[in-house]
Design a protein that fits this description.
The protein is α+β, with helices and mostly antiparallel strands. 20% of the residues lie in helices and 33% in strands.
Length: 482
């Protein structure tokens, strides 16, 4: 009986275990990719780039600094330095003092995009170089010719005299997804064909430069610049260009130029030797949440025009300081940094349709794009106001009519000049004596009497945009009257 009981318990126990779901059935298994085959295929198309520059040879000094003459002679003997007075010494070739000599300048990386010797890299890798040397993985070294570079996007194209070279396939950087695996191949610290891997941590990252970057956590160090960022299919999706660092080395964030943008630049560099961009002649400022709300935009969007170049394309097309550009040539402008990219992509000579926000409504204009660099200037933080006796109005300022000379200098039609401030809302917002108030909400300010009437009629509980002209900038400040 005891044997039967043990057998039944064993069967029941097995039955219990058979109903317990396994962990593998509940949680899908995620495997880490094996990059070995990919690296083996891609590495031959990644190159090391070494640059040199000409330096002047200094007049040699007698002896060896820091050593007595008898010890200096010892080092001359054993390290092959000629010693005066001893015949039949090996002849040493030394450049004459005052003559240029080739000296190493720096190292970087690049990758082959055409089997006939076209190499893509960063502009900062080859900028200022007298000679560019490209070394392949099979140790062949070539002198390269710089076809063109664009410092604004940090893209450069060089050519070596070689044929039937391995090349890397190009991917589509617009399809990159945050979280996908990527890897970099390059020469960090001059260590050739070094591979690092990680994931895409952000897309369209603005760093104040012309292009939006792909952000990754791939280890990128000095010497990696110009090397490829590859997806798991072995396609190039970016050029490793920058790192975020407080120490000079990798700290967990690196940035790559999207390959779609890089190739658009590279194509022009190959055939024109330079990058041709459109421009309209505007300086831009930051669009904050407070400014957007005071202007009636609801949320921050568009590019705020801080200044317009006198007689430039934008001015000729009717764009004014204080406008917010919402759409340019059919493309919506989400933020100020979008506009230079869109304008730069527009062919010079194009008549572009521009939609601006002005005085609480949209206005359609046409601007003829010209050839050149588009001006982009970040808005400066207002300086601390000077303490001065102010007026008794709701803004707490004393003002006078603007002289004709100052109107001409600031390129304005009217306004009032601030001569003093008390502890009112304009002083707290950074306005200072010498500033010119040119507009309040949708009303242009033309003189002192009109200004006082406008301020008197404002709702004390509602913030209004006040447009301030200072030097070559138009600032918009949301102000709630006291």
């Amino acid at each position: 009986m005891k044997k039967y009981l043990i057998a039944i318990l064993a069967i029941f126990s097995l039955g219990q275990f058979s109903f317990i779901p396994s962990a593998s059935a509940q949680t899908p298994r995620v495997s880490i990719p094996d990059f070995a085959d990919l690296v083996e295929r891609a590495s031959p198309a990644v190159v090391n780039i070494r640059t040199t520059e000409k330096v002047m040879v200094q007049q040699p000094q007698g002896g060896i600094p820091g050593l007595p003459e008898d010890q200096a002679e010892f080092f001359r003997r054993f390290f092959g330095v000629p010693i005066p007075g001893i015949p039949n010494q090996p002849k040493q070739t030394q450049p004459s003092p005052g003559q240029p000599q080739e000296a190493d300048r720096g190292v970087g990386s690049g990758f082959i995009i055409d089997s006939n010797g076209l190499v893509l890299t960063n502009a900062h890798v080859v900028e200022g170089a007298t000679t560019i040397y490209v070394t392949l993985t099979d140790k062949r070294e070539f002198k390269a010719k710089l076809l063109g570079m664009d410092k604004r996007t940090d893209v450069a194209v060089v050519k070596i005299d070689a044929r039937d070279l391995p090349k890397l396939p190009l991917g589509d950087s617009s399809r990159v997804r945050v979280g996908e695996w990527v890897l970099a191949i390059g020469s960090p610290f001059g260590l050739e064909n070094t591979v690092t891997a990680g994931i895409v941590s952000a897309k369209s990252r603005d760093t104040g430069d012309y292009l939006p970057f792909i952000q990754t956590d791939v280890a990128v160090n000095p010497g990696n610049s110009g090397g490829p960022l590859l997806n798991t299919a072995g396609q190039v999706i970016g050029i490793n260009s920058q790192i975020f660092s407080r120490s000079g080395g990798y700290m967990g964030i690196s940035f790559a130029i999207p390959i779609d943008e890089a190739m658009r630049v590279a194509d022009q560099l190959r055939f024109n030797g330079k990058m041709v961009r459109g421009r309209i002649g505007v300086a831009l400022g930051e669009m904050t949440k407070e400014v957007a709300e005071s202007l009636g935009l609801g949320k921050p969007r568009g590019a705020y025009v801080r200044n317009v170049e006198l007689s430039g394309p934008a001015a000729n097309g009717g764009i004014e300081s204080g406008d917010v550009i919402l759409n340019f040539n059919g493309r919506d402008i989400a933020k100020s940094t979008d506009l230079p990219r869109v304008v730069g992509d527009t062919k010079p000579g194009t008549s572009a349709a521009v939609q601006v926000w002005r005085k609480g409504a949209t206005k359609d204009l046409a601007v003829v794009v010209t050839d050149g660099e588009a001006s982009v200037v970040s808005a400066k933080k207002p300086e601390s106001p000077n303490s001065n006796s102010g007026g008794t109005n709701a803004f707490g300022v004393a003002v006078v009519d603007v002289s004709e000379a100052k109107k001409k200098e600031l390129n304005i039609r009217g306004g009032v000049e601030v001569t003093g401030l008390n502890e009112g809302p304009l002083a707290r917002s950074g306005v200072r004596p010498g500033d010119v108030i040119i507009r309040i909400a949708d009303a242009d300010v033309m003189g002192v009497k009109q200004f006082e009437a406008l301020v008197k009629g404002l709702d004390a509980n509602k913030a209004v945009p006040v447009f301030i002209r200072r030097a070559d900038s138009t600032l918009v400040i949301p102000v709630k009257p006291k």
